[in-house]
Design brief:
The complex is a heterodimer of chains A (408) and B (229). With 408 residues, chain A is α+β, with helices and mostly antiparallel strands. Chain A has 14 helices and 12 strands. Chain A starts with a helix and ends with a helix. Chain B has 229 residues and is of the alpha/beta class. Helices cover 34% and strands 29% of the residues of chain B. In chain B, the strands form 2 sheets. A 6-stranded mixed sheet of chain B has the order 6-7-8-3-9-10, with helices on both faces. The longest helix of chain B has 18 residues. The radius of gyration of chain B is 17 Å and the shape is globular. Classes of the chains: A alpha+beta (408), B alpha/beta (229). At the A-B interface, α1, α11 and α14 of A face α2 and α3 of B.
Chain lengths: 408, 229
């Protein structure tokens, strides 16, 4: 028997109970749309977090002293690079490197007469293109010049939390290279907003020369940060900069913890995807089982005419395929509509963005298109739907024709 | 020559603890081209015997030979092939596939047997013309009267040129005129095609069409009848 005729019978049978077929199709569509939106959203979160981290913190490649530990933010000379200018020049000579700039990190406490906050101190070259996002995000004041001996720039959230404005004075305390706490008075020259909560509330920038003097790390840097013209050149650039007493780390190495925590978060979404697809499968199986019960006599007639069990099963699989494919097409359209909204408008999460330590998210989170992932979800949905139709099909096919015909 | 021989067939149905002996050691043989009535009161075993003859069910004991082949040992697929190629069915409730047109219903067994599109087209129209429904070819069952539906069922049963046609109370749901018309068509097609017709009935008017009458009671054949003419 031709598949075309089985399609015809399947399609017309579905049209016999249009309301039931429509709601089943809708369940498939909404289930898949939900998955597409959720996965588009989580992909966007992941991409945002990685790109924010690269753009504002790690760059694509970094050079560090082999003993430098990010957690300790050590200022011991042994843990620092002692020839940053040479390393910057060397890095800039490698193909693909657009920007190379030294940075000195320290942990510190900033205090006003009324309040204080723990933060990370960045000693930077204020003129470097790497800090363009901060310059572009200035909401008040200006970036200090490289020779500014007391100027700092802070994030808007930190400024709001401490009630600070441009030209206000603050006290900053760090533990210097000798292991001794030192305190200094600084003036807020500028306030920036990157939209990324982690930076806006816990980062303080000052010129590198001042930072080196303040922390007694004379001429040393924690790292050389590089931005490349393409993210996928990171391994090649790191390999080109391999040298003794310096380690070259790519953005993957530098964001390893975040990548792992996001990936384990993605594991939860895989479970969620599976649950939603299984619910859709149960709805399909239920619809087809109801159809089997209604049409058991018809199955007896078809069997009497010589239709074999496998052909009866095929008929139900085709009915499921019609419902599944139509539902998937509708689901993809609805899902892409939802993703498109979240790509363009985003979802404002405000302070919640800062609630996941180490994952730099903006206050507005945007989704991302992930065509491969969406196609996978659609194919899995179809596959599970087809598998779910096997049981009703088998249930219909296993009866003796006489038994089915008795159900008149 | 016998197209079907049923020998010592018994069929027992069990529902919970209750056992019903629907057939009890039945022997019956039908020759090619016969037009035979299977008569008896309700519950006498007519439908069960037809289902066993039609390979829709298996006897608990005994054998069924079609064209000399013992089919009781056939598996489900072999029995499906046999029903498709050798046996036509007409049911009391017409039993058309509701979502298919008259044309498509008649075409269905031909599709199952793998007939070409051209063969199917010719055969379907030939059969619909034979039952006087060529002009209703594209009507669905719910657009046809009961009599018309039963005539489509007759056309469908004969489309694959079966050796025998089994009809279970074919006129029970028809008025007198339609019942008579259906019987006349079956009688004519029996003569034209040479297919054996075996029909179960308890309607004396239908019995009068039969050239042989087999009478059943309580799962036994009480009269094996003699072929007339």
């Amino acid at each position: 028997m031709t598949l075309a005729k089985l399609w015809t019978i399947g399609f017309r049978d579905l049209m016999r109970n249009r309301r039931r077929s429509f709601f089943t199709l809708l369940a498939v569509a909404l289930g898949l749309a939900l998955l597409i939106v959720l996965n588009g959203f989580i992909t966007g979160v992941f991409d945002d977090a990685i790109q924010n981290s690269i753009r504002l913190q790690t760059g694509h490649v970094q050079l560090r002293a082999p003993s430098y530990s990010d957690e300790k933010m050590s200022l011991l000379w042994a843990d620092l690079l002692d020839n940053p200018a040479e390393l910057v020049a060397q890095a800039q000579s490698v193909a693909g490197v657009q920007v190379a700039t030294p940075v000195l990190w320290a942990s510190g406490i900033v205090a006003t007469p009324d309040d204080s906050a723990g933060l990370r101190v960045y000693g930077i070259d204020p003129a470097s293109a790497f800090y363009e996002p901060l310059r572009a995000g200035l909401v008040a004041g200006a970036f200090p010049a490289a020779d500014d001996r007391s100027g700092i720039v802070i994030g808007q959230r930190l400024a709001n939390n401490l009630g600070l404005h441009v030209d206000d004075n603050v006290s900053l305390t760090v533990v210097n290279a000798d292991g001794e706490p030192v305190e200094g008075a600084f003036t807020v020259r500028g306030i920036f907003s990157t939209g990324v909560v982690t930076y806006d509330e816990s980062a303080l920038f000052m010129p590198l020369a001042k930072a080196q003097a303040f922390t007694r790390t004379d001429g040393h840097a924690s790292a050389i940060i590089m931005m490349l013209d393409a993210q996928d050149k990171a391994d090649a650039v790191a390999a080109a900069l391999a040298m003794p007493n310096v380690k070259a780390l790519t953005w993957r190495d530098l964001n390893q913890v975040m990548i792992q925590s996001v990936e384990s978060g993605m594991g939860f979404y895989v479970i969620l995807d599976a649950i939603v697809i299984m619910i859709v499968a149960v709805i399909i199986a239920n619809t087809l089982l109801m159809a089997v019960f209604e049409r058991i006599r018809e199955m007896g007639i078809l069997a009497a005419l010589g239709m074999k069990g496998r052909q009866i099963i095929t008929m139900f699989v085709l009915e499921a395929a019609i419902l599944g494919i139509a539902g998937i097409v509708l689901g993809v359209l609805i899902g892409l509509g939802g993703v498109s909204y979240l790509v363009n408008t985003g979802l404002y999460v405000g302070d919640m963005a800062g609630s996941t330590p180490g994952v730099p998210l903006g206050a507005t989170i945007y989704a991302a298109y992930a065509p491969g992932l969406f196609a996978n979800l659609a194919l899995w949905t179809l596959l599970i739907i087809l598998l779910a139709s096997l049981y009703p099909g088998w249930f219909a096919a296993r009866r003796e024709p006489a038994e089915a015909l008795h159900m008149l | 020559m016998a197209v079907i021989q049923v020998e010592n067939a018994s069929k027992i149905y069990r529902i919970g603890e209750v056992e019903t002996r629907a057939l009890d050691g039945v022997d019956v043989s039908v020759d090619a081209g016969e037009f035979m009535a299977l008569v008896g009161p309700s519950g006498s075993g007519k439908t069960t015997l037809l289902q066993i003859m039609g390979c829709l069910d298996k006897p608990n004991t005994g054998s069924v030979k079609i064209n000399g082949q013992d089919v009781t040992r056939f598996n489900a697929n072999q029995r499906a092939d046999l029903r498709r190629d050798v046996i036509g069915f007409i049911f009391q409730f017409f039993a058309l596939v509701p979502v298919l047109s008259a044309y498509e219903n008649v075409e269905l067994p031909l599709l199952l047997s793998g007939a070409s599109a051209k063969e199917r087209r010719q055969r379907v129209m030939q059969m619909l013309e034979a039952v006087g429904l060529a002009d209703r070819a594209h009507h669905r069952p719910d657009q046809l009267s009961g009599g018309q539906q039963q005539r489509v069922a007759i056309a469908r049963a004969l489309a694959p040129k079966p050796l025998m046609v089994l009809a279970d109370e074919p006129t029970a749901n028809l008025d007198t005129a339609n019942g008579q018309q259906a019987m006349e068509i079956m009688q004519r097609l029996n003569q034209e095609t040479g297919a054996a017709f075996i029909f179960a009935t308890h309607d004396p008017r239908v019995m009068s069409y039969a050239r042989r009458t087999v009478t059943m009671r309580d799962g036994h054949i009480v009269s094996n009848g003699q072929a007339l003419g």
